[in-house]
Amino acid sequence: MRINDDQTRFFPKAASRVCKTEFRDELHNLLLNGSKPCSPLADSFVSGDEIRSAMDRMILSASGWRGVFSPSGGEEDPGADVPAAQLALAALMADAFADWLLDGAGAASPPVILAGIDTRPTGPAIAEVMIRVLAGRGIRVEYLFIAAAPEIMAAVRDKDGFVYVSASHNPVGHNGVKFGGVSGGVLSGGENGALAAAFRRKCDAADAGERAKRLVAACTEKEAERVFLQMGVHKKVALKAYRSFLRDVAADETEVKKRARFFALLKKETDIFPAAIIADMNGSARCCSIDERYFEELGLVFHPFHDTPGKIVHGIIPEGNNLRWAAEETELVARELLSMPGAPPPEEILVLGYTPDCDGDRGNVVFYNGKTGRAQALTAQELFALAMLAELAWLNWRGQRKKLAVVVNCCTSLRAEEIAGIFGAQVFRAEVGEANVVELARQKRAAGWTVRILGEGSTGGVILHPQAVRDPLSTVTALLKLYFLRGTKGGLGLFDLWLTLSGRRAPTEGAREFGFVDLVESLPEWTTTAVTDERARMHIREQDHGALKRRFQVLFQDWWDGDGRAVREKYGLASWDAAATVGTTETVGILDFGLSGAGGLRISFYDEAGVAQGFIWMRGSGTEPLFRLLCDLRGKRADLEAVLLDMERRLLVLADAPIVFSG
Q1: How far apart are CA 87 and CA 102, in angstroms?
Q2: Mean pLDDT for the chain?
Q3: Could you give the CA distance from residue 244 to residue 259 in angstroms, rounded to a whole number?
């Protein structure tokens, strides 16, 4: 049910042709393809220099290929008309992916792929070009139109791959592409690197512009019509596949009866404890997915808002001030629930709110704090830690306690190791980037580890196996498990297990009365720089990050032996070591900071007993022109965090200034 039932619903509808080359979704009257009056690029000339210039401005990372596709070239431009040079890039991207599909062993003949977009205004035009190129290369394309990233990645498992047009959390004028195979995740770092190299070669060819035009024109109008008019059919199939897969993931069961028992157990508790889920869709692809049905089947009040697809109301990245709308609505719904006859005390109601990014794979969370009467945002690191705690407790509760592992990115708080250790689990670290984390988890499973939860704690990105992508629905479900699976006379609940194993006081027969804020307050205390903090980002001129880090190493060692001595004595820092994280490999104890190259560099600090007290970290972003920093410290130590982060920034400024090291 909804608190207010006046918002737009999305159900799959057949597409309709408006004119010869224009197709629209019948429900929202949104364009499925570009707005050009004729086939894309048919009346355009794009020079090789224009293509190479546009390609040079793109970032091609394992997390996705991204650039600015807006008409004006502005990051915040909401226009839909994509410049011809960027359309040519889209054609050559699709051509490179077609080569990969057609050359791949085991691909169907012809290969069948899914295509989808998020709700950015430039998405339909880019998608049309890529669809026409792929179809013209003999690949059968099933178009889902607007689809959340986890949806297309769940539905692809009986296909040969997917093309997803999105720039994730980047500003609205950006766009890009994610490519994937049948695994349900984006291509691995190695596969993506090979594909990116092939794409660059195509862009560098003397006839790149003419080739792009020929590739688009190779698709017949009859085939283009088939793709667009069958959108509703394929969207309905994808939503069904996503719902089924998500329930498998949540219950960690593929057997129908066992999965049904899990959801029945969860729903039994939701009938006892009042609960509501708030969703600030912000016009994202989640407006067109299964969120409402999924949570209502659990017996929860579901209240979405800002849920008209494409109507982006505020900043896309779901962090910081962009969570205030969800917080305000969470408080409103909590007050409505508390005003109902027979309502329980404020501490005993559960109201969670989430805000996704544009492609709907991230979803950071706010909750109603019954002790303060206000909504409170979980930091990204808290969100990941709480979900991790929930899933490790869930495994323990089910009797799975051997060879457990968690895979995280290199700048996830060391709180992860503290929680994992309590459940007897090992933490492995990969370089920043979803593809790196997913690939390392695959490697660890192949080596016999049970890796139920993985992700990027720095952004709150939770991935639950067998998913290979973040999903806010899975994240919220993990929190619901921890809250609802409570103790009975027959045993302890998940929260009780955590309290008992971590040495906190716990009732012998299990606690039935606690609030969500009690779960949050039970987390080990760590002070961690938020990725949205202005101090956590810098613009660095040096393109060779390995060289930059070597210069930083000289300056850092001088600081440690000199000005840092007072800091060490005041805060009990006795020693340090450095670790490089590149792709799926972490090397601890490196003597040369430059070995981390463009990957992550972490400098960890230890007390006299050799216990880790935290770290500073750095890495150039793979999706934005930024150099990112972070400091993570045990306990409430905002003063030390400020000192160490300031030191890191100052030394990086010096390391980035060649005059310091000139003769």
Answers
A1: 22
A2: 90
A3: 10
Which SS3 state, helix, strand or coil, does residue 427 take? strand
Low-confidence ranges of the chain (pLDDT < 70): 1-21, 35-38, 105-108, 488-490, 505-512, 622-625, 658-663
Q: Which of 457, 356, 547 is nearest to 365 (CA)?
A: 356
Q: What is the pLDDT of residue 4?
A: 38
The superfamily in CATH containing domain 15-237 is Alpha-D-Glucose-1,6-Bisphosphate, subunit A, domain 3 (3.40.120.10)
User: Could you count the other beta carbons within 10 Å of the beta carbon of residue 468?
Assistant: 22
CA 253 – CA 130 distance, rounded (Å): 36
Per the rule left: phi > 0, alpha: psi between -120 and 50, beta: everything else, 455 is left
Q: 273: how many CB neighbours lie within 10 A of its CB?
A: 16
For 534-661, the fitting CATH number among 3.30.310.50, 3.40.50.150, 3.30.930.10, 3.40.50.970 is: 3.30.310.50
The sign one gets for the Cα dihedral 384, 619, 526, 424 is positive
Alpha helix ranges (H) inside 455-541: 472-484, 494-501, 516-521
Distances (CA, A) of 656 to 541, 549, 659: 7, 9, 9
CATH architecture of the region 378-524? 3-Layer(aba) Sandwich (3.40)
What pLDDT score does 25 carry? 78
- Distance CA(222)–CA(647), nearest Å, equals 63
Do 277 and 352 contact (CB within 8 A), yes or no? yes
Report pLDDT for 14. 59
Look at residue 109 in the predicted model and tell me its pLDDT: 80
Which pair of tokens denotes residue 377? Answer: 């945002």
In this predicted structure, what is the pLDDT of residue 2?
A: 39
Cβ count within 10 A of residue 348:
14
Assigned token pair, 289: 């997915």
Give me the DSSP letters along 476-497: HHHHHHHHHS--BTTB--HHHH
Instruction: Using DSSP, state whether 442 is helix, strand or coil.
Output: helix
Instruction: Kindly state the tokens that stand for 569.
Output: 């004595």
Can you tell me the distance from the alpha carbon of 241 to that of 232, in angstroms, rounded to the nearest whole number?
A: 14
The tokens for 644 are 């160490």
- Evaluate whether 100 touches 195 at the Cβ level (below 8 Å): yes
The radius of gyration computed from the CA coordinates of the chain, to the nearest angstrom, equals 25
Q: What is the pLDDT of residue 623?
A: 63
Question: Has domain 256-364 been given CATH number 3.40.50.10420?
Answer: no
